[in-house]
Design brief:
The complex is a heterodimer of chains A (about 375) and B (about 260). Helices cover about 70% and strands about 5% of the residues of chain A. Chain A has about 375 residues and is mainly α. In chain A, strands 1-2 form a two-stranded antiparallel sheet. In chain A, strands 3-8 form a two-stranded antiparallel ribbon. In chain A, strands 4-5 form a two-stranded antiparallel sheet. Chain B has about 260 residues and is α/β, with parallel strands linked by helices. Chain B has 2 domains: about 1-80 and about 170-255, Rossmann fold, CATH 3.40.50; about 90-170, 3-Layer(aba) Sandwich (Rossmann fold). In chain B, the strands form 2 sheets. In chain B, strands 6-7-8-3-9-10 form a 6-stranded mixed beta sheet, with helices on both faces. A 4-stranded antiparallel beta sheet of chain B has the order 2-1-4-5, covered by helices on one side. In chain B, helix 5 (about 120-140) packs across helix 6 (about 155-170). Chain B is globular. The mean pLDDT of chain B is about 90. The chains are: A mainly alpha (about 375), B alpha/beta (about 260).
Chain lengths: ~375, ~260
């Protein structure tokens, strides 16, 4: 805590910390890649995708207070758009710079489609409708292979073009000024760049007229209306913005995996992203990022350690690591919610404001 | 005679069989403090809710500043220049006092997503203006020293005044206050009275629902009395106080 306080007070310390963080983020794939191997590097790449998803959902749930249990549908829309426009399935190979923004726009449109009929709903009721929406999208993807084969049904779409920057494919090692950047590293940098862009957009929005209107609707919709906020438009905007982040993440996912199928967009995924937002600290951007990282990495840690730990303790593997993994994960969720009900890293507004007040009194 | 700011013509509202408002007509002049009183359940708050677009009236119409008010569009009502407070305070509890007032500026500002993300010059200037105005309003109502406190942590009286600041932030022509003195002690009520008089002096017309008879009689230029959804009397406070219908409404009729 004192570290964070110091950062707030000293400009120089803040610059140093930012630089350190920048260097850490830049060398992280090399540390992880050489220390833990490529499987962890993949997990790291996925963590960045999940951060984008969690930040998108945070706009809807954290800022505007609209409980959305079908968020993964927007991820699916972005992923399938990429898959359909850049794969042998239709023989289309459109460039990335066109598909990703198109995915964001189409997902945003789907966000509005979901938002429009649910404007009067809140809380539990909204959750049920959005849950249904998420399932509808998944079931459509599963069944749109007949009579006209659009999505290739449960088999999914494979052979998707890798992400490219200009003529450079990220699926192969890249030579840059005599330096060879392996594929997973290259993906990491691309995802990191986009994640940072989304963080930047979210921070700017949070501290704006629009962001305040979202929070006002979350706090008291009637009072927000009485203040002249057009709650319909502002809510739809929240749905659209959140969904468009999901669409971007989906496009990246499709290009990264080179394969999409409806299985990847189950209700469980929506719940996971929601957990990232709630556990990390609803409405607080650093908290949501932390939630995204932890909830991507923790299950993998459990997966990798459950077997060896049992071996060491009991001499043999008693419980299937895969089953134990979810058990431990669930336990971790319960513990966090019991001891930090506002999330691991909740908004610091309260603390900061208390401090500001104390210093104001001292000078008075 | 001064200009007419608000005119209600035969406004009616029922909930099922209950006639909450029944053919209520009244007019409020520019620059006056107009009181709306009546026993509990007389329909005062219902009138406010119809006026501010939260309820759709079942009959009649409201003319504000020469134009008809569109029913059931609260944000448009705010846009037109009617701001309100609520009987049971409705602040944005987890936002700071400052942010609460800044939200009130929403309706008079324009920055959208693009401006917010790019921080272009117009947006920055607007944001600075919002902040400056909010600060000034916090001073105006006297909660400037609590600007960074979360609204929910403010004392009851401060919350009431913060709600007034938020309403004033929308640049209203008509400020509708729903029982602003409820739960206040004598000192706070006296401060409130000064505040409301100041607001009127600054050119805002005030519509006041209040139970505190002393406050209403001392403050209002004219008073209307509602009983069972109907207006039974409208006049200057001195006359209203002596009206037998009003006394009957409050104290009950003679034993039959």
């Amino acid at each position: 805590m004192s570290l964070i306080e110091n950062l707030r007070h000293s400009r120089r310390a803040a610059i140093v910390a930012t630089l350190l963080l920048g260097v850490l983020l830049a060398v992280l794939p090399f540390l992880v890649g050489s220390g833990l191997g490529n499987s962890w590097l993949r997990i790291l790449d996925f963590a960045l995708i999940y951060i984008m998803l969690a930040l998108g959902l945070n706009i809807v749930v954290g800022f505007a207070g609209l409980l959305d249990l079908g968020y993964i549908a927007f991820y699916a829309v972005g992923a399938y758009l990429y898959a359909l426009l850049a794969s042998p399935h239709f023989g289309l190979h459109l460039p990335v710079w066109l598909i990703i923004p198109a995915g964001a726009a189409l997902s945003g449109l789907f966000g509005v489609l979901l938002g429009a009929p649910t404007l009067r709903l809140r809380g539990d009721y909204l959750a049920i409708v959005t849950l249904g929406f998420g399932e509808i999208v998944r079931i459509f993807l599963n069944n749109l292979n007949a009579p006209v084969n659009i999505t290739n049904g449960p088999q999914g779409i494979s052979g998707i073009d890798p992400l490219r920057l200009g003529a450079v494919s990220l699926a192969k090692p890249i030579d840059l000024l005599g330096l060879t950047i392996p594929s997973l590293h290259a993906y990491y940098y691309l995802f990191l760049g986009l994640a940072l862009l989304i963080v930047f957009i979210t921070i700017r929005l949070e501290n704006s007229r629009i962001g305040r209107a979202w929070v006002a609707i979350r706090e008291d919709e009637i009072a927000a209306k009485a203040c002249g906020i057009n709650t319909r438009n502002i809510k739809l905007l929240a749905f659209a913005m959140g969904a468009s982040f999901g669409g971007v993440a989906g496009g990246l996912f499709a290009g990264f995996q080179a394969f999409v199928s409806p299985e990847s967009f189950s209700l469980m995924e929506s719940v996971m992203v929601l957990c990232m937002v709630v556990l990390g600290g609803m409405g607080n951007i650093p908290g949501v990022i932390l939630g995204g990282v932890l909830l991507t990495i923790l299950p993998e840690v459990f997966r990798h350690s459950a077997g060896p730990v049992q071996q060491a303790l009991f001499g043999r593997v008693l419980l299937d690591p895969e089953a134990l993994r979810m058990l431990l994960f669930g336990l971790a969720l319960i513990v966090v919610m019991l001891y930090r009900p506002a999330g691991i890293w909740p908004s610091t507004t309260r603390r900061r404001e208390f401090k500001g007040d104390a210093s104001a009194r001292a000078t008075a | 005679m001064r200009e007419r700011l608000l005119e209600a013509k035969g406004v009616a509202k029922h909930f099922g069989g209950v006639k909450a408002l029944c053919d209520v007509s009244l007019s409020i002049q520019q620059g006056e403090i107009y009181g709306l009183i009546g026993p509990n359940g007389a329909g005062k708050t219902t009138f406010f809710n119809v006026l501010t677009g939260l309820y759709h009236p079942d009959g009649g119409e409201l003319i504000f500043a020469g134009e008809r008010l569109e029913a059931s569009a609260p944000h448009k009502v705010a846009q037109r220049g009617i701001a309100r407070t609520f009987q049971n305070i409705r602040l944005f509890a987890n936002m700071s006092a400052m942010e609460n007032v800044m939200v009130g500026r929403h309706v008079r500002t324009h920055a959208g997503v693009i401006g917010a993300v790019l921080h272009n010059r117009a947006t920055c200037a607007e944001e600075a203006a919002i902040r400056a105005r909010a600060e000034a309003l916090l001073h105006y109502v006297g909660v400037a020293d609590r600007a960074n406190e979360l609204a929910k942590n403010l004392s009851y009286g401060d919350q009431r005044r913060l709600e007034i600041a938020r309403a004033l932030a929308t640049d209203p022509k008509l400020l509708a206050l729903d029982e602003p003195a409820a739960g206040m002690n004598g000192t706070e009520t006296a401060q409130l009275r000064v505040l409301i008089e100041g607001i009127r002096k600054d050119g805002v017309t005030v519509l006041l629902i209040e139970h505190d008879v002393k406050l209403v009689m001392g403050l209002c230029d004219r008073v209307a009395v509602l009983d069972y959804g109907a207006k039974i009397c409208e006049d200057v406070p001195g006359v209203v106080q002596k009206d037998p219908r009003v006394i009957e409404a409050y104290l009950g009729g003679a034993v039959a």
